[in-house]
Design a protein that fits this description.
By secondary structure, the protein is an alpha/beta fold. It has 11 helices and 10 strands. Strands 3-4-5-6-7-8-9-10 form an 8-stranded parallel β-sheet. It is globular, with a radius of gyration of 19 Å.
Length: about 325
């Protein structure tokens, strides 16, 4: 059993399969396995470097009749190097080609960060650094107004390439500004959110604008330990309130944290490379957390952001580029 949340004119499954850091060699099989296990929502991005393999998995499942295209919800994202309006459509079409689809259900601006254009023939995906062969590789920002990029995103809807458009990693201020100039309103805000980063004000702002929210990295530190962006002891799954709730309902701590996200009204897109975790992560709809448990888990908030360009851009890419204060 699954549940959906309204996104624009459609309904998106509240549980999705996050494809960030799924190895290319595993991606096709994992997508096929996820569909077999009942997943219908897939969260992809050009920057993940595995869209061609994801497309293989989608095509195989569709050709075998495991699912029909109208049962699937596929999201992808515009990378930072394609923010200039003249590059937006080509970037979207490359994603569609790799995913072997004619239309996306949702296309998001990945970061409110515009970087110097990198041609497909030079490097794809282009990632963050302008010239990896340089003596001191750095990011090279491009001065592109977000309103220009959004206007090109709207054209994708008009052209029938995407059904809905939205944004990732936007702050409240950027959302207010976007709502002032957009002709086609964003349908989705995708943000990092977990019990250590509850983002209550951002969620309230999104609700004010009837903007759906997807929480990426919904389990917190687990996605970042292997990248040296979090410490093992930062795992929210070890918190007593999480373990106590898990014991009460007979579920795993991970299921408790994901259920917390669902009960807040957000979609969640956990990532895994293990089929048994695929099964576990979607078994969230036959139990509920009570008000005391929800409040106690929310009280774990410590404004701990793991995916922070203000930190990793300088540490990994030699460029100080914060987007959050």
């Amino acid at each position: 059993m699954t549940a959906t949340i309204p996104v624009g004119s459609g309904d998106m499954p509240a549980i999705g399969f996050g494809l960030w850091k799924i190895p290319r060699g595993d991606s096709a099989a994992m997508v096929h396995a996820a569909i077999t296990e009942g997943y219908r929502h897939f969260d992809s991005a050009a920057d993940y470097g595995n869209e061609a393999e994801v497309g293989e998995g989608l095509r195989a499942a569709l050709s075998e009749g495991l699912v029909s295209r109208d049962e699937l919800w596929v999201t992808s994202k515009l990378w930072n190097t394609y923010h200039r309006p003249e590059h937006v459509r080509a970037a979207c079409e490359r994603t569609l080609q790799d995913l072997r689809l004619s239309e996306l259900d949702l296309y998001l601006i990945h970061f409110p960060i515009a970087l110097q254009y990198v041609d497909f023939g030079t490097r794809y995906p282009p990632e963050w650094i302008a010239d990896p062969a340089a003596e001191n590789p750095v990011m090279v920002p491009d001065l592109v107004p977000l309103s220009d990029t959004w206007g090109a995103m709207e054209e994708l809807v008009r052209a029938g390439l995407v059904k809905e458009v939205g944004v990732c990693n936007y702050s409240t201020g950027l959302i207010h500004d976007l709502m002032a100039y957009s002709q086609i309103k964003p349908a989705m805000l995708q943000i990092e959110s977990h019990p250590y980063l509850a983002q209550e004000r951002l969620l309230r702002t999104a609700a004010h604008y009837e903007l759906a929210v997807t929480a990426f990295s919904p389990l917190g530190a687990l996605s970042y330990v292997e990248l040296d962006m979090a410490e093992t002891e930062e795992s929210v799954l070890e918190q007593a309130v999480v373990k106590e709730a898990a014991a009460r309902v007979g579920r795993t701590p991970a299921q408790i944290v994901l259920r917390w996200g669902i009960q807040r009204g957000t979609a969640v897109i956990p990532k895994t490379s293990r089929v048994e975790r695929l099964r576990e992560n979607q078994l969230l709809f036959d139990f509920e957390l009570n008000e005391v448990e929800m409040a106690a888990i929310s009280a774990l908030n410590r404004n701990r952001r793991f995916n922070d360009p203000g930190r990793f851009c300088e540490e990994a890419f030699g460029t100080f580029f914060p987007i959050y204060d």
